[in-house]
What does this fold into?
Amino acid sequence: MIGAPVSANPATKSAHDFVFTAIEGGPLPLSQFAGQAILVVNTASQCGFTHQYADLAEIWQRYRDQGLVVLAVPSNDFGGQEPGSEDEIKEFCEVTYGIDFPMTSKVHVRGDKAHEFYKWAAAELGSRAKPRWNFHKYLVSPGGELVDWFSTATSPTSPRVIVAIETHLPANERVGAAD
It folds into this structure.
């Protein structure tokens, strides 16, 4: 099946091994973002934290030219707060928040039906790092490693998130590697 995720298994070594389906349809392999930092965020349109879309748009605008990709992963797993179709979700995000960063089709982010990326992330970072609500964030390095996670309550524009993003932008990782 096109766009089928790679199974979470010991051979999986990188976030770049996973494929989502784009909200418009078609495969969305994380490998296409190799060499860029990726902030993966499970989102919902009817959540008390939906206002974080504005913050995600802000950091996308601020850092996209420096190698950051924001990836929204809509999910209806928490409180049924993402009940819409892909078209409805995409339209809501574009009209309400001006979102133009990549979005996946709606997936599960927890439980047995979770997308394999989320199963892998939990295995890599431990159960404390699993999404417990909408707008949970994972930061992936340009090399595909999971380098940090941020809870729902942590704003994408918080100093902790900004420092982590700036540390893992491609130019900064190269500088750090050369030292």
